[in-house]
Amino acid sequence: MKSIPAVVYREYLLRTTSLTWLFFDLFMPLIYLLIFGIGFDRALSEGIMMKGQLIPYNEFFLGGILAMTSFGIGMNTSYGFFMDRDNGIFYEHLTYPMTRGEFLIGKVLFNCVIATVAAIIALGLGSWILGISLSVAHLPLVFVGIIIGTAGWFFFLMIFALRIRRNDMYNTIINLLYFIMLFASSLFYPLDLLPSWLTTAALINPVTWQADFLRYFTIGVGDLPQIMLQSVYFLIFLAVSFYAGTVIIRKIA
Amino acid sequence: MNNRYAIEVVNLTKMYTPRGKPSVHALKGISFTVEPGAIFGLLGPNGAGKSTTIKILTTLTPPTSGRAVVNGFDCVHQPLETRRSLAVVLQQNAFELYLTVLGNLRTYARFHHIPRREADRRITEVLDQFGLYDERYTHAIDLSGGMRRRLQVAKAFLSGKPLIFLDEATTGLDPINRRTTLSAIREQASKGSTIVLTTHLLDEAEDLCDRLVIVDHGSIIAEGDLHDIKRLGVPAYTLNLIFRDVSPRTIQFLKAQNPLHFKHNATAAEITLQQSHQQILDVIGELDRDHDLVHFEVHTADLEDVFIDLLSRQKEEPV
Question: Considering CB atoms only, which of A6, A87, A94 is closest to B60?
Answer without folding.
Answer: A94
